[in-house]
Amino acid sequence: MGRWLAMVLVIVGASSYGLLSSFIKMAYDSGFTDGQITPAQMTMGTLLVWLLILFNKKSWVNPFKGPWVKLGLIGIFGLSLTTVFYNIALQELNASLSIVLLFQFTWMTIAMDCILKRRLPRKAESLAIVFILVGTLLAVNVLDTNWEHLSLLGLVYGLLSALTYSVFLFFTGHVVSPLPPLMNSAIMLTAAMPVMYILYPPTVFVHENGSMLLLWGLLLGFLGQVVPTVAFNIGIPRIGGTLAAMLGSAELPVAIIAAYLIIGEPVNGLQWLGMGLILGGILISENKT
């Protein structure tokens, strides 16, 4: 596969994840909670990936012949916890603020790379972090926000989702697997399920609106687990975690525009400027000097 196609796949995966927040907010407005939506999303997403494997004979390989332990850990600490933390943040905060908090994964990924490789940030990376942090202050509308009524729980979980998402991006780019991308995705998602069911017992499906919950899970699992996980598992190993983090910036404008168009969340000029600074910071971070 060519490098450009791998880059397009990462953008598609990020854009799909960007659409997710607005639909989760719609699911909450339908009367469901994060304790119902999260396991439905993960369960249906995992089943969809295994269904894709069933119809793709090239993916019929022994999963234990690859780095299944590493992939499983990425699934638990990257995919599963990101979904849990982000969905809680979405229940506590609006979609725009939640996605801005998630986007702190950009500087966290740089910090993780510096710590693990025992190096100092490059000048471009340091400048990028400044851009991203200033952009974040503008994007969360720091001047007009009533912080007394803002959920501290939502802020904490939003930042935790950024941390676990950076774990997913960073380590997916560093795990070399001979397995087909679909099988890599299935291993990650399947490993995450026991942890998910410990946090949210599957009894949530025994509900008077259980069929509607499963339909929401089907949509959210497709947007949040199937498309991003498969696209990232194909694209990230070919372009690396750092470039993937930059291309993943497509998630931010997609999420904000979707929140504006689908659920009517207002966005002012300063917030657009802030998001522009965040995107600019991500572009600067790719400067190798």
What does this entry look like structurally?
With 289 residues, the protein is an all-alpha fold. It has twelve helices and no strands. It has helices at residues 3-29, 34-54, 68-92, 95-102, 105-116, 123-139, 152-172, 181-199, 210-239, 241-247, 251-262, 269-285. Helix 5 runs antiparallel to helix 10 (241-247). It is globular. It starts with a helix and ends with a helix.
Task: Estimate the strand proportion.
Answer: under 5%
What string, H for helix and E for strand, traces the elements in order? Answer: HHHHHHHHHHHH
Mean pLDDT: 86
Structural class: mainly alpha
Major β-sheet profile: none
Terminal CA distance:
28 Å
Poorly predicted regions are none
**What overall form do the CA principal axes indicate?**
globular
